[in-house]
Write a structure and sequence with these properties.
The complex is a heterodimer of chains A (about 400) and B (about 350). Chain A has about 400 residues and is an alpha+beta fold. Chain A is built from eleven helices and seven strands. Chain A has three domains: about 5-95, Butyryl-Coa Dehydrogenase, subunit A, domain 1; about 130-235, Butyryl-CoA Dehydrogenase, subunit A, domain 2, CATH 2.40.110.10; about 250-385, Up-down Bundle (Butyryl-CoA Dehydrogenase, subunit A, domain 3). In chain A, strands 1, 2, 3, 4, 5, 6 and 7 form a seven-stranded mixed sheet that branches. With about 350 residues, chain B is an alpha+beta fold. In chain B, the strands form three sheets. A four-stranded mixed sheet of chain B has the order 1-3-4-7. A three-stranded antiparallel sheet of chain B has the order 2-6-5, with no helix packed on it. In chain B, helix 5 packs antiparallel against helix 7. The chains are: A alpha+beta (about 400), B alpha+beta (about 350). The structure holds flavin-adenine dinucleotide. Flavin-adenine dinucleotide sits at the interface of chains A and B.
């Protein structure tokens, strides 16, 4: 175990802190603490420009290999980056799907040609990505995707037809990675492919879905003979690639997320002290519990990221999503209880939520996306504990 | 103790339930959300015609003279259909307050008659409940001020409007200056009346929350039966079944606390605060659990504006802190059971 930073790490910390202070100014000043969970719809243009500014400073994709424009930053440095980014209140990353999911997937499975084509757009903050996994009948049962990919005999191009749903930020994205069936008649996780599809083409239709927050962060996406620019890996390898990608979701990006959680908790503590709720013994205890839950999450993440021989680290990865999602959901409920009767008051008409309301409503979804709590528990029991699989109907 | 309701009470509840089911389907709720004023006067009028307005007004003033136990059934119906109207505030809470004031109190009989006719909206304003539903539509407000009861007309108070996370609710704060002219009862009469009124307000919220919990449960059960994943209805997975079993557990165990509290209020029980707080805690908790598990069972669909579930969840969330937060009510329970000289011992265990 190693929880310390060396002198070089500390220099790195000064450098990023300094850079953020200098650059979160002018047109970007208003982005402070914005664009986080529940606030993704805000300032999307400005936040895209912010991505480009980050890129100019060399602060996107810092964990990527230097050969592809990254800094090959160590885990410690990535932790530091996440900490300083959150401390500065720098805005929610529009580029997180590309940087955290698409990039690592292409690095792992793509050809050099594909890397050269897709990585620079992510690195430079000029091309944004969305995730085309879920379908109306493929939610928890992701392997039930029905979207078809057919290779055109003349052009050799793959053509995609089908419907995706709940696609976050599709309307803000240049690209979507799409899980589609390459082998007609195949079932479950066999016969799938992992495709990269440009959103701006006639065969793609994006329709926003209104969320209970009154905003639309996710969409339905209809593909009608849309042309895929690329297939990653081989036909039939899609499931393996898709699952590997989900593993990246649990990587270093979670540390950045934790810093955001810490900001939220700090804000809540400030509120509780100012409105007197912190005098209530029950609220005090719940705040203390929130604090210990978050620290626990941090140690757990550090342990997962440590280069360790500890056999427990795999289980610690399996329990991670369940833990943070439940913690965050409870934090949202605590926020409402700290506010008391005023919790229901909106910021303004017609339906502009306060930050705490956004937090509360958004955290209702944390236990659903990225694998529901029930599915997480099934995975922990089946994969982690080797228990028999639950009977399936197909 | 006997938990059976009279045939009259049950028949009345059935009639109201049928009426609300046809009059206020979810589409109508959505329409109400989009209006400026919120609840409509047509709906209010129709509810009055069904006898809701007159329910607990004394027979002398043209009412039906039913008590809190009847309201413990009806508030559940109002909750089940998420009726945004503040009918219970006038017909139950305000009517109870006026009835409890000494006969001959200024305007008492006249206001009760108007409540029974369904021709007046009276808001009740108390420190524990600073955000008042439909205050902007109220003809009059009964206001707590240092234990006194003040009666103010719409033109005498200022209404600071707010929008709620539940778009069908219209909540406001009241600004007014108390004067001897607005006072209709002093603190000597007022204090006891306000204690009872606070309990009615809280009990109405408890009943509505329980009704909402039942509605969220019904929606979730339907969804779990229809929605298929892995080639099976999701309701066939134990993880889903057990969540919904916990919801029904919460509802069924909360129900008798509601009835116990209503009985205590109706019979002037000295420990009414204890029973009411218990009911408020248990019923709101049942609603919180129903919302939490309800959205979980609905998956991403439950997070949309389109799914009706969100309207019921938001109402339940808004009611959670109305007429006293959980902390407030837990404190009241603690105050009762930890009081000096409280009766403890086997002979008291099952008393009350
Ligand atoms: C805010 C938000 C953003 C999202 N963004 C994206 C995105 O960008 N891209 C994308 O592809 N998807 C996205 N999703 C979709 C998300 O991945 C799915 O919602 C999730 O996988 C669950 O699927 P479902 O909603 O269809 O629920 P269902 O699978 O229908 O589940 C309903 C309920 O049944 C339970 N259940 C299902 N199967 C089992 C089982 N075998 N055992 C026990 N319980 C079970 C579930 O736990 C849940 O409680 C997003 C969702 C949300 C809420």
């Amino acid at each position: 175990m190693k929880l310390t930073f060396n002198a070089e790490d500390e220099r790195f910390r000064d450098e990023i802190a300094q850079w953020l202070e200098t650059n979160l100014q002018g047109e970007f000043a208003k982005l402070k603490f914005r664009g986080g969970p529940g606030d993704e719809h805000m300032f999307s243009e400005e936040r895209k420009r912010w991505e480009q500014r980050l890129a100019e400073g060399g602060w996107t994709c810092i964990g990527w290999p230097e050969a592809w424009g990254g800094r090959n930053a160590s885990i410690e440095q990535q932790v530091i980056f996440a900490e300083e980014y959150a401390r500065a209140g720098a805005p929610g990353r529009v580029g997180h799907i590309g940087e955290g999911l698409t990039g690592p997937t292409i690095l792992a499975f793509g050809t050099d040609e594909q890397k050269a084509r897709y990585l620079p757009g992510i690195l430079n903050g000029t091309e944004f990505w969305c995730q085309g996994y879920s379908e109306p009948s493929a939610g928890s049962d992701l392997a039930n995707v029905r979207t078809r990919a057919v290779q055109n005999a003349e052009t050799g191009k793959w053509e995609i037809t089908g419907q995706k749903i709940w696609t976050s930020l599709a309307h803000e994205s240049e690209w979507c990675f799409v899980l589609a069936r390459t082998e007609s008649g195949s079932v479950a996780h066999r016969g799938l492919g992992f495709f990269l599809v440009a959103m701006d083409q006639p065969g793609v239709d994006i329709r926003p879905i209104e969320q209970m927050t009154g905003t639309s962060e996710f969409n339905e996406v209809f593909f009608d003979d849309a042309i895929a620019a690329d297939l990653i890996g081989e036909p039939g390898q899609g499931w393996h690639i898709a699952m590997t990608l989900l593993g990246f979701e649990r990587g270093v990006s979670t540390l950045g997320q934790q810093m955001q959680f810490q900001n939220e908790l700090n804000e809540l503590i400030r509120l509780a002290r100012s409105n007197g709720a912190a005098r209530n013994p029950n609220i005090r205890q719940r705040l203390a519990e929130a604090h210990t839950g978050l620290r626990l999450m941090r140690y757990n993440a550090m342990r997962m990221l440590s280069d360790t021989e500890d056999a427990g680290s795999e289980s610690s990865a399996l329990v991670y999503k369940l833990h943070w999602s439940s913690w965050h959901r409870n934090l949202g409920a605590l926020a409402m209880d700290v506010l008391g009767p005023e919790a229901e008051m909106l910021e303004s008409a017609p339906y502009n939520l306060t930050r705490m309301q956004s937090l509360f409503l958004f955290t209702r979804a944390d236990t659903i996306y990225g694998g529901t709590n029930q599915i997480q528990r099934n995975i922990i029991a089946e994969r982690g504990l080797g228990m028999p699989k639950e009977a399936k109907g197909r | 103790m006997d938990f059976t309701f009279t045939e009259d009470q049950l028949a009345f509840k059935e009639a109201i339930s049928r009426f609300l089911k046809t009059e206020v389907p979810p589409e109508v709720l959505r329409d109400i959300c989009d209006t400026e004023e919120g609840s409509t006067s047509e709906l209010r009028q129709k509810m009055a015609e069904q006898g809701l307005a007159a329910l607990s007004v004394p027979e002398n003033q043209g009412g039906l003279g039913m008590d809190d136990t009847a309201w413990s059934l009806l508030t559940q119906e109002l909750g089940y259909y998420a009726i945004p109207d503040s009918m219970a505030d006038t017909a139950y809470v305000a009517s109870g307050l006026l009835t409890a004031l000494p006969e001959g109190t200024q305007q008492r009989e006249q206001l009760l008659e108007m409540i029974a006719e369904g021709s007046i909206r009276i808001a009740v304003v108390h420190g524990v409940n600073p955000l008042v539903v439909d205050l902007h539509l109220a003809d009059k407000a009964l206001v707590e001020h240092e234990g006194e009861v003040h009666l103010v007309s719409r033109e005498q108070f200022d209404c600071e409007r707010n929008t709620s996370i539940d778009s069908s609710r219209r909540v406001s704060r009241l600004n007014f200056s108390a004067s001897s002219a607005s006072k209709i009862a002093g603190a000597d009469d007022g204090s006891g009346v306000w204690a009872e009124t606070l309990n009615r307000g809280a009990l109405a919220v408890a009943g509505k929350s329980l009704g909402l919990a039942q509605r969220m449960l019904d929606l979730s059960v339907d969804y779990a039966i229809q929605r298929k994943q892995f080639g099976k209805p999701i309701g066939s997975f134990q993880a889903v079944k057990h969540k919904l079993a916990d919801v029904v557990g919460g509802i069924e165990t909360a129900k008798p606390t509601l009835y116990r509290a209503a009985y205590a209020l109706a019979n002037g029980d000295a420990r009414a605060d204890l029973y009411v707080s218990h009911a408020k805690l248990a019923c709101c908790q049942a609603a919180m659990v129903a919302a939490r598990h309800g959205i979980q069972v609905h998956g991403a669909m439950g997070y949309t504006w389109e799914a009706d579930l969100q309207m019921f969840m938001k109402r339940a969330w808004a009611l959670q802190a109305s007429w006293g937060t959980a902390e407030f009510h837990r404190q009241r329970v603690a105050d009762d059971i930890l009081a000096d000289g409280v009766a403890i011992g086997p002979q008291y265990t099952f008393e009350g």
